[in-house]
Amino acid sequence: MLGHTRQNLAGRRHAALLHASLGSVPAGVCVTDRRGLFVDANPQYCRLCGYERHELIGRHYSIVTPAVQPGTHERVFDRGEVLPAYWRVVRKDGAELIARALLAPFDDENGRRLKITTLLDIGERDSIDNERRVAHDRLVQNGKMAALGELVTGVAHELNTPIGVALTAASHLIGEVEALKRELADGSLTRDHMVRGLTVAEAALSLVMSSVQRAGRLVEAFKQVAATHTEDGLHAVPLRQVLEGLLEARRMRHPGVHVVLDVLETCRPVTYAETLRRVLGNLLDNVFDHAFAPSGDAGTLRVESAETAESTVISIADDGVGIPPASLGKVFDPFFTSARGAGKTGLGLHIAYNLVTAVLGGDIVLDSRPGLGSRVTLTIPKVHVGVAP
Question: Which CATH architecture fits 234-381?
């Protein structure tokens, strides 16, 4: 008698523990016995089918899922199989929905086999997934709009200076011409005034021309910012020869920089030659313009290449001033520069990044430590397959 009482107490404790566990599961879960009668159901299951828990206990599962495939019940109880399924669920109010189900065997403390069924409303899941997609798309769109805003602001800022200078010079030129016309009309124009007027006009026109040319170069640079294609053809590029040509002119401007070129003559990636040349030129300009200038052009630049079965890897490393950690994550952003006062636009690395990833089909990484220098690693396909995008 005492043993039977202890067994009943243990069974009740087990049932209470099972019920508490089911309540913490976010999906709809029910427990049925071998006869198909409900033993328990969590609040999520009750909400899904529209019944209260006490309305389900002791009743057959067919009141909720009337079209269970024949043999499913036996496969779980007799063979111990775990089965996925899709079921038509009939709610208490007669409404129907499609749910994804997972059936699994479970033995209680007395060795009695039970079946645990988990239900997930597909419509609810799709709604959640759709909300997530909408939220993700909104974040992406916000990011694009923010990037576009920064780009437009940068373009406006860079163009404002040469256009403003050109307008000022043109305005001054117009004023000088009007003065000469008045003097000519009233007969007071002298040779000295004419020479002075022409000298001012020449200076103003020269300023207008240089400003417009700078604006034109900026526009060309802006066009490269969004480069996703090239008119260039695929060629086996003699990498060492290309680098020697790029380095020659730059070494003349920076004679204090010691250059080490470790690139084999046999390194010839099949890629878009002019695009690769432009990328390497931008990367080298960045080194000579930023790495050594503060220290009087003294330092070492090492350019190396390596090849794998599928890729060509080009490394450009210097022992210059390095990049502060706060700036390292921005170096590929458009218009980011530490030398705007020297006329730099901050587009070189951004253009290089776009060309490498969008045209050459490669990757580019920059590592740096302040005071120890920087290293740019460019990885491109050894043989570019297909047509330029």
Answer: 2-Layer Sandwich (3.30)
